[in-house]
Design a protein that fits this description.
Helix content: 40-55%
Bound molecules: 3-methyl-2-oxobutanoic acid
Strand content: 5-15%
CATH class of the largest domain: Alpha Beta
Largest sheet: 8 strands, parallel, barrel
CATH architecture of the largest domain: Alpha-Beta Barrel
Shape: globular
Radius of gyration: 20 Å
Order of helices and strands: HHHEHEHHEHEHEHHEHEEHH
Length: 290
């Protein structure tokens, strides 16, 4: 309830997606995101996994659609993102690409598609761009992936980094607790962020780290930071779209604000439909052919 009140206040006086889009038709590019940071314009990002949702989010003016490996949890029903394959991300990125016209599409590199060797990482990133139609790729990690990042950026593949609570390392972390609270962890994240920027990354996702740390990284870097559970000091924000629309019920971290209760609304609609079929009031004459 509290979050719905906050949302109503925060959208008060703002334009709807349609009106926003009439004035902001230009396709979003990585350069544009850096310009948005320079102009202190916040970057709006959400995940997307199919053409239907991509079209709705794109029409509503979302700047970046991330084909996240969260598809493993959200769509495939896995406990973690670990089982997601490169073929899965290619399939979903193609679908998102067909639905979107303005948003920048970022394809997530799944576990083990970039860790083995920079050559392999480079080839796989190339497939996401060439076969799937991504505008950029994202990968998790800092200094340990900078060689792969440099290879990609030198060849014209835009790369988004991802630091903090990186879900592909969940088996190493052992828990989903925030990262970077301890001084040494905070320093490591800060150094990783600098290393990614030096390697040519165009943006960095900061996940579940303390707000002051995220704000310091954001003011130190010239490339934008995109926060998820990293506070308001980031240059943009991202959420998994099924969380912010209330489609998922069993995932309730404090950083998720629910803007809708679609789980309840869909359940009510389907219950009504089932009632009408069983009561033989659907279909009626007008819904039938003679
Ligand atoms: O896979 C994903 O959806 C992500 C975002 C939550 C940043 O990595």
């Amino acid at each position: 309830m509290e979050s719905q009140q906050q949302s109503a206040q925060s959208t008060d006086g703002l334009q709807s997606g349609g009106a926003y889009m009439q004035q902001n038709q230009r396709a979003v590019t990585t350069l544009r995101l850096v310009e948005m940071k320079q102009k202190a314009q916040k970057i709006v990002c959400l995940t997307a996994y199919d053409a239907l949702i991509a079209r709705i989010l794109d029409d509503a003016g979302v700047d970046v659609l991330l084909v996240g490996d969260s598809v493993g949890n959200v769509v495939q029903g896995h406990e973690t993102t670990i089982p997601v394959t490169l073929e899965d991300i290619i399939y979903h990125t193609k679908a998102v690409k067909r639905g979107a016209s303005r948003s920048l599409i970022v394809a997530d590199m799944p576990f083990m598609s970039y860790q083995v060797h920079p050559d392999e990482a480079f080839r796989n990133a190339g497939r996401l761009m060439k076969e799937a139609g991504a505008g950029a790729v994202k990968l998790e990690g800092g200094q340990r992936v900078v060689e792969a990042v440099s290879r990609m950026t030198a060849a014209g593949i835009p790369v988004m980094g991802h630091l903090g609570l990186t879900p592909q390392s969940i088996n190493q972390f052992g828990s989903y607790r925030p990262r970077g609270r301890a001084r040494d962890e905070a320093e490591e994240i800060m150094n990783d962020a600098k290393a990614l920027e030096e390697a040519g990354a165009f943006a960095i996702v900061l996940e579940k780290i303390p707000s002051p740390l995220a704000a310091s990284i954001s003011s130190l870097l010239t490339i934008p930071t995109i926060g998820i559970g990293a506070g308001a000091g980031c240059d943009g924000q991202i959420l998994v779209y099924t969380d912010m629309l209330g489609l998922t019920l069993d995932f309730n971290p404090r950083f998720v604000r629910r803007y809708e209760s679609l789980h309840e609304r869909i359940t009510a609609a389907v219950t009504n439909y089932a009632h009408d079929v069983r009561a033989e009031v659907f279909p009626n004459e007008n819904e039938s052919y003679q």
